[in-house]
């Protein structure tokens, strides 16, 4: 999707905006509304952290990012400032008019990128922006199961990172992917076998 944005969108600023936005959603698990609400002052370059202000349920949180993600955001910010030196809004991601991105436009653009790239062609339901968040959560849980981490003790941290009200909302992802459900069941079987011994 990132490559599709870079190759198919004619405007360099718009192409960079969508490539960076999609990348951020994929590596952070942020909600699309949180990403487009992000202001320039919400990025702490020194600490590598984003401030998500009053998101769903009125909660704010800090989202730490890997150095590679911060570098991608910094590259985008440089290009954005070159093309929009005096934006109309303080938003981090800007439209060609220098304003905050609108959800309806972002959603429509994402749909076009998905269709043009042939992603999910023939699927009963085409990919949505929010699926990037689901993929992030499931991949994180899969990684923990595969490396034999104590998932139960880590779920609260993932729940906070994703901005869930409570860990039970995060446990929903266990049933969202068959592979994840199978790993969780296998681990439970091992625990029961040990308990019986």
Layout of helices and strands:
Layout: H1 2-8, H2 12-28, H3 32-37, E1 43-44, E2 49-52, E3 61-64, H4 67-83, H5 103-117, H6 130-146, H7 151-162, H8 167-171, H9 178-196
Antiparallel strand pairs: 1-2, 2-3
Helix pairs in contact: 1-2, 2-4, 2-6, 6-7, 6-9
Describe this structure in words.
- There is one protein chain.
- This protein is mostly helical.
- It has two domains: 2-117, Intergrase catalytic core (hpI Integrase, Chain A); 130-191, no CATH class.
- It contains nine helices and three strands, in the order αααβββαααααα.
- It has a three-stranded antiparallel sheet with strand order 1-2-3.
- A hairpin with a 4-residue loop joins strand 1 (43-44) and strand 2.
- Helix 2 packs antiparallel against helix 4 (67-83) and helix 6 packs parallel to helix 9.
- The longest helix has 19 residues, at 178-196.
- The radius of gyration is 19 Å and the shape is globular.
- The termini are far apart.
């Amino acid at each position: 999707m990132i490559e599709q944005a870079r190759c198919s969108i004619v405007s360099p600023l718009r192409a960079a905006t969508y490539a960076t936005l999609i990348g951020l959603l994929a590596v952070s698990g942020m909600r699309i509304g949180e990403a487009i609400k992000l202001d320039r002052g919400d990025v702490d370059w020194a600490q590598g952290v984003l401030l998500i202000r009053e998101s769903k349920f009125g909660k704010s949180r800090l989202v730490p990012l890997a150095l590679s993600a911060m570098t991608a955001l910094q590259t985008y910010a440089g290009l954005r400032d070159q093309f929009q030196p005096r934006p109309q809004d303080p938003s981090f991601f800007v439209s060609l008019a220098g304003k905050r991105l609108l959800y309806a436009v972002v959603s429509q653009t994402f749909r076009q990128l998905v269709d043009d790239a042939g992603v999910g062609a023939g699927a009963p339901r085409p990919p949505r922006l929010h699926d990037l968040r689901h993929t992030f959560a499931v991949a994180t849980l899969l990684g923990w199961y595969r490396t034999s981490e104590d998932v139960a003790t880590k779920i609260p941290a993932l729940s906070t990172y994703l901005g869930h009200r409570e860990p039970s909302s995060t446990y929903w992802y266990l049933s969202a992917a068959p592979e994840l459900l199978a790993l969780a069941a296998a681990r439970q079987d091992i625990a029961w076998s040990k308990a019986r011994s």
